[in-house]
Design a protein that fits this description.
The longest helix has 14 residues. Helices cover about 20% and strands about 30% of the residues.
Length: about 140
């Protein structure tokens, strides 16, 4: 199997990890063919836990969730082992009027769906965004 520019799937660290291999193959293993994963016979490690994602958008709920634009002066978000995320704005800290209204993503994990949900709720309660945009956060 190959993906993108002909990169064999067994060279992708995350795929290797799913099949119980070292994330990065040693040079010796590559040269003698030991880094290859035969996906037809190799069993995948069972999935564990649960992950939930939410989108952070610049939308005005009072105007039918119409996208808004403007500057962001402050985002207060703290990653934890169970919650992580990213935010994307231009170099001046603004969301352009012609950009997609989504400017961030948060991900929460837990041993089950309920705990992942609780982790996300706590993260959203602690998230603060201050600026010219409208958001439901």
């Amino acid at each position: 199997l190959q993906v993108a520019m002909g990169i064999p799937l067994y060279h992708i660290p995350e795929v290797r990890e799913l099949y119980g291999k070292n994330r990065f193959a040693d040079e010796e293993d590559v040269s003698n063919g030991k880094s290859v994963i035969d996906f037809t016979v190799t069993e995948r490690i069972p999935a564990y836990g649960h992950c939930i994602a939410v989108r952070i958008t610049a939308e005005n709920a009072e105007a039918g969730f119409k996208p808004t634009s403007g500057g962001i002066q402050e985002i207060n978000f703290r990653s934890t082992p169970n919650v992580w995320g990213y935010f994307s704005m231009d170099s001046s800290g603004s969301i352009h009027e012609f950009a997609d209204s989504q400017f961030g993503h948060l991900f929460a994990s837990g041993p089950n769906r309920e705990q992942a949900r609780r982790n996300m709720v706590l993260a959203l309660k602690e998230l603060s965004i201050r600026g010219d945009i409208s958001t439901t956060v």
